[in-house]
């Protein structure tokens, strides 16, 4: 169940016109999943179906994402939270512009602060270049772990790219196995409880 803070954020997003995408959307697409999830998946922005339904990753790409999650024993209802870099659909499915990404990022940052995931997975180039490194190459650096501000971050292919190029699926599957293994590793560290220096906790607050 969503917290009061998350609900307030969702409401703010529903009436947001902080960037021009707010003028052309049908529905904002805030996010879906478990608000206490250990993994946050981040895509680039809503497409046509998402804009109509107000939910991220519906249609063929969404079905594929659900299958990918099932491969590693996860589902969008139980274990993960799914959001986008921008909450409103860019016209004609173009990439969100840098200024649109910057205008919308405070929502994602606030969501991340509330969810407090251990792992953030960037789905595709737009998410990776926005969250990991502006020069990020998805072909070269997918499946590589980065530790940033107390979060483990990794990028893999966007499901829409996998639909266009089936040959990438094998690499994407390898990335998913790394994500599952990292989560298991991080979860195992929690049990039995060990003394913590509180550093990770402090980092997530920054
Ligand atoms: S894309 Fe983000 S910043 Fe732009 S109007 Fe939509 S919610 Fe607001």
Model description:
The chain has 206 residues and is an alpha/beta fold. It is 47% helix and 13% strand. The chain has helices at residues 4-14, 21-24, 48-53, 59-71, 98-115, 125-131, 138-141, 159-164, 169-190, 199-204; strands at residues 32-33, 39-43, 80-84, 119-123, 146-148, 151-156. The protein has a six-stranded mixed beta sheet with strand order 1-3-2-4-6-5, sandwiched between helices. α1 runs antiparallel to α5. It is globular. It starts with a helix and ends with a helix. Residues 196-206 have low confidence and may be disordered. The site of iron/sulfur cluster has 14 residues, from α2 and α5. Residues 13, 16-19, 21-22, 28, 86-88, 100, 103-104 line the site of iron/sulfur cluster.
Chain-wise SSE layout:
Layout: H1 4-14, H2 21-24, E1 32-33, E2 39-43, H3 48-53, H4 59-71, E3 80-84, H5 98-115, E4 119-123, H6 125-131, H7 138-141, E5 146-148, E6 151-156, H8 159-164, H9 169-190, H10 199-204
Parallel strand pairs: 2-3, 2-4, 4-6
Antiparallel strand pairs: 1-3, 5-6
Helix pairs in contact: 1-5
This protein binds iron/sulfur cluster.
Residues 13, 16-19, 21-22, 28, 86-88, 100, 103-104 line the site of iron/sulfur cluster.
In short:
This protein has 206 residues and is α/β, with parallel strands linked by helices.
Key phrases:
206 residues; 10 helices; binds iron/sulfur cluster; alpha/beta; Uracil-DNA Glycosylase, subunit E; single chain; 47% helix; 6 strands
Name the shape in a single word: globular
Order of helices and strands: HHEEHHEHEHHEEHHH
CATH class: Alpha Beta
Small molecules in complex: iron/sulfur cluster
Q: Can you list the strand order of the major beta sheet?
A: 1-3-2-4-6-5
Spans of at least 5 consecutive residues with low confidence:
196-206
- Superfamily (CATH H level) name: Uracil-DNA glycosylase-like domain
First-residue to last-residue Cα separation: 25 Å
